[in-house]
Fold:
Amino acid sequence: MTTHLVWLRNDLRIHDNSALHAACRSADAKVIALFIATPQQWQQHDMAPRQAAFIYENLRLLQQALAERGITLHYLQCSDFAASVDQLVTFCQQHKVDRLFYNYQYEVNEVRRDAAAEKALFDHDIMAQGFDDSLLLPPGSVQTGNNEMYKVFTPFSKAFVRRLQQGLPECLPAPKARDTTPPSELPALEPFDYPREPFDPDLFPAGEQAALKQLRHFCQQSVMDYAEQRDIPAIDGTSRLSVYLATGVLSPRQCLHRLLHQHPGALEGDKSFVWLNELIWREFYRHLLVAYPALCRHQPFTAWTNKVQWQGSDEQLKAWQQGKTGYPIVDAAMRQLNSTGWMHNRLRMITASFLVKDLLIDWRAGERYFISQLIDGDLAANNGGWQWAASTGTDAAPYFRIFNPTTQGERFDARGEFIRHWLPELRDVPDEGIHQPQQWAKKNKQKLDYPSPIVDHKEARNRTLAAFEAARKQAG
Structure:
């Protein structure tokens, strides 16, 4: 009997899984699956412990779902990607695997691992087939008239929508149950040899069914209000599907098809398009990662910004990380991140701008801290967001666009509801003082257990403008 192996990585689902679907196409083949944990590699990549815990729980549920279809999910654990290739080859030999199916990952280390795996398998007469699965459209398929990757988002988005209007990517069904006896005992899934930090199952329920339920709920009830509510952190106005997309429990094609099922006018620009455009931002950053691999190597897209003289101190970085900067909206956001492993998207922009433009700390320090905390951590999206905020990336905010953290708080958390939730030491400060609590306390002769601002925004803005202007001149 022919044996097909599905090598699972960040595609932990049975619905719309290209590699799984292809492996199951032949009714006569035996199909098995494999997940290889690589804790040391994850540590090198600063994976958040909460994300590792979320992956493990989804892996456990996926094993059960596959078993119901007669597919056994095996599990191995080794140190890093190099060791995983060796283990993969040995596993294939032990189980007499004829063909391997997998979905592409686009980060530099992952691409090298997969190339090494294909070569090693080929040397043992095992054919491997990869698929573009984690995107709506494959990298390189949306290009300018000069056959180059777009460097600005808006024309990329317009070209992307035109491609979708010409034909939607297919959404594949889950495989049918194999004509085999379901395994009576499943292989053990040993806990990852990785730092343990539990995630909140109420905020992020694990499993494909939970992800699909949340997607349906959002598209049915919330997406038409998304444009008005997405920037207000005190409101549950976002989809909170990013964790499922980052780990592959949900595919972007499922999101697109569900959205169009509920709102057929999305591609023509009705109100639901605002959310679809966020999915296109996700595509943009991943397509960029493939076109410019240096983005995986901590390099700015805009070369002259390498000349910026970063000046922030370790003490200021620590204050930002701990949510003790003296700017309430920044501190509340950072404490949300530290507590839950997630941060509202508007707050990601505000906190990133504060670190880079107010403290003049290298954006890479913030990028690394975020990825070490985020349950929805994704290299392309995280890097793209940080380079946008730092004015170092493609389609970045101009370096002279600097968020004022106080006015941002006043605009997006006017009554301080979000701030008071995460900064209980400010719970008794009235609305009119919540965004500058130290001034309110001084005026009203009150004492607060809350720090004074660690930097003056106006002075910091001038310092940052001077640093960026000097870098431009130095670069010529």
About this structure: The first helix runs from residue 18 to 23. The beta strands are 3-8, 30-37, 72-77, 99-103, 127-131.
